[in-house]
Specification:
It is a single chain. With 243 residues, the protein is an alpha/beta fold. It has a domain at 40-168 and 207-242: Vaccinia Virus protein VP39 (Rossmann fold), CATH 3.40.50. Helices cover 42% and strands 22% of the residues. It has eight helices and eight strands; from the N terminus they run ααβαβαββαβααβαββ. It has helices at residues 23-36, 40-54, 70-76, 93-105, 141-154, 172-188, 193-203, 212-222; strands spanning 60-64, 85-90, 112-116, 127-133, 155-168, 210-211, 227-233, 236-242. Strands 1, 2, 3, 4, 5, 6, 7 and 8 form an eight-stranded mixed beta sheet that branches. Strand 7 and strand 8 (236-242) form a beta hairpin. Helix 2 (40-54) packs parallel to helix 3 and helix 5 (141-154) crosses helix 8. The longest helix is centred in the C-terminal third of the chain and has 17 residues, at 172-188. The model has no long low-confidence stretch (mean pLDDT 92).
Length: 243
């Protein structure tokens, strides 16, 4: 399925609305995420490798906030455990409808259940792998502790949570540098200064990043006592938490 080039913020917008995962975003999503999130493709590939290592026979692998199913497909092509199922969830019906078309065209055989729901409202059970690839940052801060605890409780012993997030830094100089480098990354990928600044405004109060220490402490409180960053590219990181 061809992805169009992301030009959503290329013209001046009077009022900038809060970012929504609607049809206009769905059409450009693969191009947008690739040009905006440093290391996105490397993370997607590694999710398949990690799922291959951690998926257990007769268990579920969850992709929470699946968008167009990139992490789902990566797992689907790499998991070799028997009688596994992938449960992919997103609350944007526009995303999920497009995701279904993409999965239907895919030839791998691992079953995929697609669920249109808030990821906080689904039950998580018998899980060997849970993927939150740049999704927790869109969940209200006040709900994050309970949500991560629910994931911990739904994981089997030996289970894996992959948590990728945009990060904040407590040190001001570091924060300024990492933000500047992320914007330079976007400019190097063809976004104009106006696109960078309008997108930034639209994500204000929608995408709420935290520091690595905040993530680690929440994971620890929920029961994950073994967490590491396995990938970082500027202010974008992916963590693995082991049960
Ligand atoms: C990927 N993981 O390509 N419930 C369900 N879905 C949600 C919720 C929620 N409460 N909040 C946001 N979403 C993907 C990329 S994108 C990241 C994830 C980004 C969904 C939202 O609809 C969108 O599809 C996704 O989370 C975030 O590996 O665009 O920066």
């Amino acid at each position: 399925m061809n992805s169009q080039k992301d030009t959503l913020y290329a013209s001046p917008l009077g009022d900038i609305d809060g970012f929504k995962f609607d049809n206009s975003v769905v059409d450009v999503f693969p191009d947008m995420i690739q040009r905006s999130v440093p290391g996105y493709s490397a993370i997607i590939s590694a999710i398949g490798l990690l799922a291959n290592r951690f998926a257990q026979d007769n268990s579920n692998c969850y992709d929470l906030g699946c968008s167009l199913g990139a992490a789902t497909l990566s797992m689907r092509h790499k998991v070799t455990a028997n009688h596994c199922k992938i449960i992919a969830v997103d609350n944007s019906s526009a995303m999920l409808e497009r995701c279904k078309k993409i999965i239907d065209r895919d030839t791998a055989t691992l079953p995929v259940d697609l669920i249109c729901s808030d990821i906080q409202n689904i039950s998580i059970k018998n899980a060997s792998v849970v993927v939150l690839n740049f999704t927790l940052q869109f969940i209200p801060l006040a709900d994050r502790d309970a949500f991560i605890k629910k994931i911990y409780d739904g994981l089997l012993p030996g289970g894996l949570l992959i948590l990728s997030e945009k990060l904040l830094f407590t040190n001001e100089r570091q924060q300024a540098l990492q933000t500047e480098m992320h914007h330079n990354f976007k400019r190097a990928n063809g976004y104009s200064d106006m696109e960078v600044s309008q997108k930034r405004a639209s994500l204000e109060n929608v995408l709420i990043p935290e520091t690595f220490e905040q993530h680690k402490s929440r994971l620890q409180k929920s029961g994950f006592d073994n967490t590491e960053v396995w990938f970082q590219y500027f202010n974008f990181a992916s963590m693995i938490a082991l049960k």
